[in-house]
Design brief:
The protein has three helices and no strands. The protein is mainly α. Helix 1 runs antiparallel to helix 2 and helix 2 crosses helix 3.
Length: about 80
Amino acid sequence: GVYDISKGYVVDTTGWQRNSAKTAFCSSFLAGFFMTVTVSPFDRVRTALMNQPTDAKLYDGMTDCLVKTVRNEGILSLWKGF
């Protein structure tokens, strides 16, 4: 997974041992960061869909919500709360 790939990069770049605490910390940080960066836009759109009023439908689906969010709030709004 992402952690294993990150760990390989950390070991190759720094020369640290694979089983050291600092390797685990840096690998975990990198993996968490990249997972958050990639998952946040989908979570933002899902949250907007779930929070729309039941009596007035704002979005017609995930793609419509994504387009309207980017159009109205800008591309960086997909990482709001990051």
